[in-house]
Design a protein that fits this description.
Helix content: 40-55%
Shape: elongated
Radius of gyration: 22 Å
Number of helices: 3
Largest sheet: 3 strands, antiparallel
Order of helices and strands: EEEHHH
Structural class: mainly alpha
Length: about 120
């Protein structure tokens, strides 16, 4: 995501990858003014594309997590169809996100012994 800093006339004068008090306006990278500013920044600062990709990795990871959630909720894929390593990483990140947001109740799983006194709790 890109955010623009505008002057008093509403003209875009700079862009940044994170929102702040100065950079409030969400803009598209293909906007001609934004594209010129980005090109100037990349050529003047010799910013590597690797650094740009790294700075957007966490945003992309969140998008992919949300996409997996959406696809499984709509039953277009089954979570168990994902490779085991992907399942573990996604569940781990989901748990951390829930704990970080202060809502870890949704990921608590009660285990009841089959055939024991608690069998009725499964129904």
């Amino acid at each position: 995501m890109l955010y623009a800093k505008v002057d008093d006339k509403g003209v875009i004068i700079d862009v940044a990858t994170s929102q702040s008090d100065e950079f409030k306006l969400l803009v598209a990278p293909n906007d001609p003014t934004v594209a010129r500013i980005l090109e100037k920044k990349f050529t003047s600062s010799h910013a590597s594309t690797q650094k740009i990709l790294e700075s957007s990795d966490s945003d992309m990871m969140r998008i992919l997590e949300d996409l997996v959630d959406l696809l499984t909720e709509k039953r277009l894929i089954q979570f168990t169809e994902l490779p085991l390593a992907a399942q573990k990483k996604l569940l781990g990140r989901k748990w951390v996100r829930e704990v970080h947001s202060g809502n870890d109740e949704g990921l608590m799983i009660d285990h009841y012994p089959i055939g024991g006194d608690d069998e009725d709790a499964l129904i």
